[in-house]
UniProtKB/TrEMBL annotation:
Gene name of the record: uppS
This protein's name: Tritrans,polycis-undecaprenyl-diphosphate synthase (geranylgeranyl-diphosphate specific)
UniProt-annotated catalytic positions: D32, N81
Native source organism of the sequence: Methanobrevibacter curvatus
Record-linked NCBIfam families: uppS (TIGR00055)
Record has Transferase as a keyword: yes
Claim: Transferase is one of the keywords in the record: yes
Cofactor(s) in the UniProt record: Mg(2+)
Keyword annotations of the record: Magnesium, Metal-binding, Transferase
Length: 254
């Protein structure tokens, strides 16, 4: 479908006024609204809504690359999502397998040297999903230019609990002392160890909460809430989020 000329003009205007020197290095997205989108369409099942959501995620990755954003982290599947209907969970697992296998030979991923990494309780996933993830990660492991993180089987509270358990084990084994325990040590034991905290977190569908996403890492993240459902997210919506980020005075508690 051709874009409205006024829309194209507005899109150009926002792009033109963004500062390349003030781009977020790391953006994270909470992809909310796939199921509501499915219901609104009336003629597609919920898994089809998630499939369209994958298309939107690919667009966001493309838009991020165009703007020079180095890291994108997407909240794809929480531990609580296992409580959804068997049909939806099985459909999502099949979708994960299909798209991780696509990454192995995905032209844009390899041309742009995007390293793909999954964060979360991977052990909770079916073996065939874990195998597809491993193949995707191995095929991009040698890239260092850009990073695409996908949070699957993820829960921010559980991530912090697991980090505490790792630190407790180190303490018990006398590999560290109590004086060694600080914020940096906690960060080093999170699923996202070694990764810069997100500068900007975008959530779609009008909901204004993090829902357990990157709870430790988001202390100084800028939050942007968009009314569009995830499958309906437009380029101009993404540009508005970046513009909002650049207009804010980030003081980091000072």
């Amino acid at each position: 479908m051709a874009k409205n000329p006024l829309y194209k003009l507005y899109e150009w205007y926002i792009s033109r006024n963004l500062s390349i020197d003030n781009m977020p290095k790391h953006i994270a997205v909470i992809m909310d609204g796939n199921r509501r989108f499915s219901k609104m369409q009336g003629n597609i099942n919920v898994v089809r809504g998630h499939e369209i959501g994958v298309d939107t995620l690919e667009k966001v990755l493309d838009w991020s690359i165009d703007l020079g954003i180095e890291i994108v982290t997407a909240y794809a599947f929480s531990t609580e999502n296992f409580n959804r209907s068997m049909e939806e969970v099985e459909g999502l697992m099949a979708l994960f397998i299909k798209n991780f296998k696509r990454i192995v030979s995905h032209e844009k991923i390899h041309r742009n040297e995007v390293k793909v990494k999954v964060v979360g309780k991977i052990e909770l996933l079916p073996e065939d999903v874990r195998q597809a993830i491993e193949e995707a990660e191995e095929s991009t492991a040698h890239y260092n230019k850009r990073l695409f993180n996908i949070a699957i089987g993820y829960d921010g509270r559980l991530e912090i609990v697991d980090a505490i358990k790792k630190i407790a084990k180190l303490l018990k084994e006398e590999k560290i002392t109590e004086k060694d325990i600080n914020e940096a040590l906690v960060s080093q034991n999170l699923y996202t160890a070694g990764l810069d905290d997100p500068n900007l977190i975008i959530r779609t569908s009008g909901e204004e909460r993090l829902s357990g996403f990157l709870l430790w890492q988001s202390s100084y993240s800028e939050l942007y809430f968009c009314d569009s459902l995830w499958p309906e997210l437009r380029h101009v919506d993404f540009l508005r989020a970046i513009r909002s980020y650049q207009e804010r005075d980030r003081r980091f508690g000072n």
